[in-house]
Amino acid sequence: MMDPKNEISKFGRKVVSQGLAYAHFGNISLLSEGKILITSTGSMLDEIGHDQVIEVSREGPCPEDALASCETVVHRAIYERTKAGAVIHTHSPYAVATSILEEGPFEPMDGEGSKFLGAVPIVEGEMGSLSLAKHASSALKEHRACIVRGHGVFAIGATLEEAYIVVCMVEHSAMIRRLVSAG
């Protein structure tokens, strides 16, 4: 099995190379030995080194939260309320556009998205807030992904690979929706 910090780095590079996040946007976490490993605040996902993956407590705020992503509170709530083993948060452009232009849950039009994802909730909440933590974790109890209005996607999986597949599918389905709408 790959070292958890190397795995986070690998998927950080994949997220950026696929255009799902740019510069310092987005964050990645996974559960490891009862702790949450999460990217640090301000880290660039395509250049994550071991020192940019922070170990924080699952149970609640800890001193290391100051170094971790500002979305740590959201990741923690997701792990608390779901069976996720990994979380990827992106600022996927088509998904963000869809969340701004549409109300209610996002319904993929493409066959794979419809079958694989089903309806994707669009939730509200300020970045890194308790409100967002509540809304995102609640949505992810029954869905594999949610889109935060005007902000981005939170996708879960048992592994980072599963979460990555989900976040890619949300973006693909949102792109199809935008292309069809433009036609």
TrEMBL record:
Give residue ranges for domain Class II aldolase/adducin N-terminal. Answer: 6-178
Which superkingdom heads the taxonomic lineage of this protein's source?
Archaea
The Gene Ontology terms for molecular function here are:
aldehyde-lyase activity; metal ion binding
Record-level GO BP terms: pentose catabolic process
Q: Which residues cross the membrane?
A: none
Instruction: Report keywords, A-Z.
Output: Lyase, Metal-binding
User: What NCBIfam families does the record tag this protein with?
Assistant: PRK08660.1
Please state what the protein is called: Class II aldolase/adducin family protein
Origin organism of this chain? Methanothrix harundinacea
